[in-house]
Design a protein that fits this description.
Beta-Lactamase, alpha+beta, 5-stranded antiparallel sheet, 15 strands, rod-shaped
C-alpha cells in the first residue's frame, strides 16, 4: 500500500491497495485513516522525515486490532517542488504469525534440547560438533571443549569404525541406532545412541545424536548373565548329584535286593525240583514264578533309575539298548537307530540329561503317538551333538499342545526345553496332525576334547 502525505499528514494520493484497506477519501489525515485517531501520533512528530530528512520505519496495529502494518516513510518532492512524505504500508500480519510460531517452536525446541534427560549433540556433515545441551556437562565437559571438535575424538578406538559407518548412514538420510563406549573427563561410559539427519530446505546439513548412558544397565545385564552362568552350574551340579543318588539306589537294588531275590529263587528252584509232585511242589513253583517276576521288575527298575550301560558304554549304546528292549520288544514298535559314526565326547551331566530326555520322548511316543515306527539319530555337528527322535504317529499342533500342557500343569516338553537351555542346548519341535512328530535336541560337546575330536 502506498500513499503521499502533505507536511501536515493529509493524504494527497493513495493506490488501489491502500483504498481497499482504508477507503478512498483523499484529504483525511493518515492517522485518521490508519489508526482512527483525531490527533497526530506522537512518534510522527518526533520522527517527521521532512524535519529530519531521514527515512523512518515502524510497526503498528490497524484500528480494528486485527492487522499489523509495517510502515516506511521517506522524504519526497512533488513535481512542483512541494515537499511530501512517501509512505509505504505493508501488511505483515501473516508474517508476524509465522515468526511468532517459529519463535515459540524454537523456544520449545531449545527448552527440550537443554533440559532433555539424554545428552544431545549436533554436528555438521564433517562430524564437527556444532551444539551440545546441558547434560553434556554432567559428564565433565564444558561446551567450549566440544564445539568444533570431531565427534569421533570422544569414541574409544575399537568403536570408531562402526561409529563412522553409522554417521555416514545418517548423513545419507537414514536414522541409525546403536551402542558405543564414549570417552569423557569422568571416564569411559557406554552410550546408547540414535543418529538422526538434520535437514534444512530439504538438504541434510548435519546430524543430531541423542546419547543415553546405559553403563549401569550394562552392569546389571552382566550381573544377570553371571547369575545365569551360576544357575546353569548349579543345575549341572544338581543333575550330577541326582544321578549319583540314582546310581547309589540302583546299585543297592541290584547288589542287595536283586541278588537276594536271585539267591532265594535258586534255592527254591532246587527245593522244587526235589519234590516231583504234590501240592507243595506246585506252591513252590508259584513262588519261584513270583520271584522271577520280582527279579525282572527289580532289574527294570534298576535300569530306569540309572542305566549301567550309559555310564559304562556311553549315550549311543544306552539309547540303542533301551530302544530295542523297551520300545521294540515290549511295545512292538519298529525302531531304527543311527549314531553317525563320529565320536561325541560329552560331559557327564549332558550325557545323563540327553538320555533322560530321549527316554521321556520315547515314552510319550508309546503313550500318545499311536506310532508304528520310531527313529532315533545322534549326530555330531561341529562343536555340538544333535539328537532327533522321529515317529510316524498321529502328530499334533506344537503350539496348541504346549498351551494345553501349561493349562493342565503337564510340563514334559517344557521341562525338556528348560533342562536343555540350562546346559546351553536347544529344543525344536516339528509336527502337524496326521504327519508324525520330529523333536530335535542340540547340546554342546565336551569343550576340552572338541579340538582333538575334530582333528
Amino acid at each position: 500500500m502506498v500513499c503521499l502525505l502533505t507536511p501536515d499528514y493529509h493524504v494527497s494520493f493513495n493506490n488501489r491497495l491502500f483504498r481497499e484497506k482504508f477507503g478512498d477519501d483523499n484529504g483525511r489525515h493518515c492517522y485518521d485513516y490508519i489508526f482512527g485517531r483525531k490527533v497526530p501520533c506522537e512518534f510522527c512528530e518526533a520522527y517527521n522525515v521532512l524535519k529530519t530528512g531521514k527515512p523512518h520505519h515502524w510497526e503498528c496495529k490497524s484500528p480494528d486490532g486485527l492487522s499489523i502494518i509495517d510502515i516506511y516513510d521517506f522524504p519526497f518532492t512533488d513535481t512542483d517542488g512541494s515537499p511530501l512524505i512517501l509512505e509505504m504500508d505493508i501488511d505483515i500480519t501473516e508474517r508476524k504469525k509465522i515468526e511468532d510460531a517459529l519463535r515459540e517452536s524454537e523456544e520449545k525446541y531449545r527448552d527440550l534440547f537443554e533440559n532433555a534427560r539424554d545428552a544431545i549433540i549436533t554436528t555438521n556433515v564433517e562430524a564437527k560438533i556444532t551444539g551440545v545441551n546441558k547434560l553434556a556437562e554432567e559428564y565433565g565437559f564444558k561446551k567450549e571443549q566440544l564445539l568444533g571438535k570431531s565427534i569421533f575424538d570422544f569414541i574409544v578406538e575399537e568403536h570408531k569404525e562402526r561409529a563412522l559407518k553409522d554417521f555416514k548412514a545418517a548423513i545419507s538420510g537414514k536414522p541409525v541406532r546403536g551402542e558405543m563406549d564414549v570417552i569423557t573427563p569422568r571416564g569411559i561410559f557406554t552410550a546408547e545412541y540414535i543418529d538422526n539427519p538434520i535437514k534444512r530446505g530439504g538438504e541434510i546439513i548435519g546430524i543430531q545424536a541423542v546419547l543415553r548412558d546405559i553403563t549401569e544397565r550394562r552392569k546389571t545385564q552382566q550381573k544377570v548373565l553371571d547369575y545365569q552362568v551360576q544357575l546353569k552350574s548349579l543345575a549341572s551340579e544338581l543333575t550330577l548329584a541326582e544321578e549319583r543318588e540314582r546310581r547309589r539306589i540302583a546299585t543297592e537294588l541290584h547288589d542287595r535286593i536283586g541278588q537276594a531275590l536271585a539267591i532265594s529263587k535258586i534255592k527254591l528252584d532246587r527245593l522244587r525240583h526235589s519234590m516231583r509232585t504234590g501240592e507243595q511242589a506246585r506252591s513252590l513253583e508259584e513262588v519261584c514264578n513270583v520271584l522271577g517276576q520280582a527279579i525282572a521288575e527289580t532289574r527294570s527298575l534298576t535300569f530306569d533309575l540309572s542305566s549301567p550301560i550309559l555310564h559304562e558304554l556311553g549315550l549311543e549304546a544306552a539309547i540303542n539298548s533301551w530302544l530295542v528292549e523297551q520300545i521294540e520288544v515290549k511295545h512292538h514298535i519298529a525302531v531304527e537307530f543311527n549314531d553317525g559314526g563320529k565320536t561325541k565326547p560329552l560331559d557327564d551331566d549332558v550325557r545323563v540329561l540327553l538320555f533322560r530326555n530321549v527316554r521321556e520322548l520315547l515314552i510319550n511316543v508309546v503313550k500318545h503317538a499311536c506310532a508304528d515306527a520310531v527313529k532315533v539319530c545322534i549326530h555330531r555337528i561341529g562343536s555340538r551333538v544333535q539328537v532327533t527322535v522321529q515317529d510316524d504317529g498321529v502328530g499334533f499342533e506344537p503350539a496348541e499342545a504346549l498351551a494345553k500342557a501349561v493349562t493342565k500343569g503337564k510340563y514334559g516338553l517344557f521341562s525338556i526345553k528348560e533342562r536343555l537351555e540350562q546346559i546351553g542346548g536347544h529344543l525344536e519341535i516339528e509336527s502337524e496332525p496326521g504327519h508324525g512328530c520330529k523333536v530335535t535336541m542340540t547340546a554342546p560337546l565336551k569343550k576340552r576334547e572338541i579340538t582333538d575330536g575334530e582333528n
